[in-house]
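Chain A, query sequence.
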Amino acid sequence: MTAPIRIALAGAGAFGQKHLDALKQIADVEVVSLISRDLDKTRETAAKYGIGHATTELDEALARDDVDAVILCTPTQLHARQALACLDAGKHVQVEIPLCDVLADGEAVVRRQRETGLVAMCGHTRRFNPSHQWVHRRIQDGGFNIQQMDVQTYFFRRTNTNALGQARSWTDHLLWHHAAHTVDLFAWQCGSPVVRANALQGPMHPTLGIAMDMSIQLQAANGAICTLSLSFNNEGPLGTFFRYIGDTGTYLARYDDLVTGRDETVDVSRVAVSMNGIELQDREFVAAIREGRAPEAAVAQVLPCYQVLDGLEGQLRTQRT
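Chain A, predicted structure.
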């Protein structure tokens, strides 16, 4: 019988609960500790999912002998620091996207992972969605090459609330969070690094202190281009829509669904064991721990994305001065 991988999950909000739902579908995995900022709500969620330990302190969970690995679904500004704490405690770690919002912090996580040899991956979910995996396999098989990606990331967030409509203790960011998905996905799908990147942003929100609209252009070394539009001002439809324009077809992906440019449904149900990208992401994390290997979306693999974001932030800072 395979010994269970025992996981502590930090951040019991909307996205943390997506991971808890996903982990229930994976054999020989046990969530043994739940960490979040409101103890009463944390205990309530822990009871709902049958988790025996609830706390507001990550260090308390890291000190436990029955924790093998940690999944971090905490505020962006804590990701790198908490990932380092997990590695220092001898725990494998999966940190939700983004790995960092300061490049030097992400580089520090990559260095520590190499020093410890532990599994450390980042939640770049688009690599795991069946829709994007289907396109990736066509590219790998030589049946499709990207000429252009056109991506729209649109939400309505003029107040600081999460996907459940609850008040956030931190501020989301179009560049370091939402653009990270596309920058990484574009380079991964092209199999070619981003060599040119430009960005423009709209007015800053008077209280949130962030740009609510942004436009980004990318070019890969192989010549493919990407145009990304992002907004927190959009009233609908909400989410991220990816249009792949290639030499043998056009495909539109939205999360785990895929259609052709003629709106014909592409069956992606057999791409993987699940249609849930979060579940597939968590399965990869667990498999990498069991097999003692680097996972897809290992922190070292995704670091080039954050190098591009760092350059774009420098451009935007210049525009503001």
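The two ends are 61 Å apart (CA to CA). The domain at 5-124+277-296 is CATH 3.40.50.720 (Rossmann fold).
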